[in-house]
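4.2 Preliminary Data

To establish feasibility before requesting continued support, the project team ran the inverse folding procedure on a target of 211 residues. The structure was first converted into the token representation described in Section 3, and no sequence information of any kind was made available to the design step. The complete token record follows.
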């Protein structure tokens, strides 16, 4: 399907279509046309230390919000259509940010290093085995002392998102891979186009790469 490897991920097998198809017919369900409030808050708190990687960046609202602070940001995605939209927004807004076609399960192929990674909505789309591969892939590009900020649907509350993640499932791939410390996991909200203005229950986790 859409991945550079040509191998469909769980989400693609379940939905029966490549990720890129989500961007061809109006805004995707998660594409709210602005940064997630939780991400905008982290930006205001100057949380993102450059260089920053936005893994599964979609049409780039979060990456552009981070880059607007002057940080160097690379957004990667397997959806070419989303990347084209992200590049167009960057040009229109006069924001310098880089967007590249890359598989988050093979980040070592980038040959790049990052101090901070944002994952907004990618982790929860992988199954348990893919999450372990993903965390290993992240380890190949995150420097010791670097940080991952992870925003994913949670399994607590009502009107849950489509891939609710429990606390144990969130921690498991980091424990399995080793070399990571889950520093905090806070209840958050994730906005979508199919929830009301309160969004869906989510977790905002901070995970540090051990030095
Ligand atoms: C739920 S969307 C979130 C998009 C964006 N982060 C946002 O908040 O709007 C998940 C994104 O991850 C991308 N994606 C899925 N599997 C991927 C992979 N293996 N490598 C890179 N990107 C991937 C999809 O194409 C999609 O754009």
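Position-by-position output of the design step:
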């Amino acid at each position: 399907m859409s991945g550079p490897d040509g191998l469909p991920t769980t989400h693609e097998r379940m939905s029966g279509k490549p990720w890129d198809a989500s961007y061809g017919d109006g805004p995707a369900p998660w594409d709210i046309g602005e940064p997630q409030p939780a991400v905008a808050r982290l930006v205001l708190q100057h949380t993102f230390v450059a260089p920053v990687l936005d893994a599964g960046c979609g049409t780039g609202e979060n990456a552009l919000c981070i880059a607007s602070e002057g940080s160097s940001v690379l957004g990667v995605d397997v959806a070419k259509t989303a990347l084209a939209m992200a590049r167009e927004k960057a040009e229109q807004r006069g924001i310098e940010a880089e967007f590249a076609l890359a598989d988050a399960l093979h980040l070592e192929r980038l040959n790049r290093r990052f101090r901070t990674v944002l994952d907004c909505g990618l982790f929860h789309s992988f199954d348990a085995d893919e999450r372990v591969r993903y965390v290993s892939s992240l380890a190949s590009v995150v420097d010791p002392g670097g940080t991952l900020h992870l925003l994913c649907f949670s399994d607590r509350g009502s009107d849950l998102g489509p891939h609710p993640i429990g606390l144990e499932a969130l921690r498991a791939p980091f424990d399995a891979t080793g070399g990571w410390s889950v520093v905090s996991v806070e209840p958050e909200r994730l906005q979508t186009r199919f929830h009301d203005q309160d969004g869906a229950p989510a977790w905002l986790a901070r995970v540090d790469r051990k030095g």
